[in-house]
Design brief:
Elements (H helix, E strand, L loop, with lengths): L2 E3 L13 E4 L5 E3 H4 L4 E6 L5 H18 L3 E7 L11 H11 L5 E3 L4 H6 L3 E2 L1 E6 L4 E5 L14 H11 L12 E4 L4
Parallel strand pairs: 4-5, 5-6
Antiparallel strand pairs: 1-10, 2-3, 2-6, 4-8, 7-10, 8-9
Length: 183
Amino acid sequence: MSLAYSNMMELGAKAPNFSLLNTVTGKTADLSELKSDIATVVVFICNHCPFVHHINPKLVELANVYQAKGVNFIAISSNDVANYPQDAPEYMTETAKKEGYTFPYLYDETQDVAKAYKAECTPDFFVFNKNLECAYRGRFDETRPGMGQPTGKDLTNALDALIAGNKVNVDQKPSMGCNIKWK
């Protein structure tokens, strides 16, 4: 594992479009059909990262709560599966079922989407408003594996602000986790 921090996409930047394999359904999905009219969460994750394992149960819980409020969640794995075969699409499908993902888990084979978003680590969160403008980028919360129970506080504060029609606090902390495994 190589520790990495998120790049912090510029606030207000437009979400880069994508069309990727949804490993849950086996069909291609694109941002235009997955986005929400309230808020869209794009999170880069993978199957093997201990930082992702740490937040997975709370991420699923929060996704269920916020999906009921009209927020859409999209997970993307961009890791090099030649060197990290545990992150291959067939294992992504298994992970989605095992973890109870209620959101698409997309495979970025070319890594072009991760590059477009300037994603650096897993997990790496990006929240877009109804116009697909970046309103939040950064960490799930302040916890780390072995250092407290995840709450998702940073992410939920951003989502609560968007749902209420308010501006998201610009004091945002970068995410930290395993680096994306580039080809």
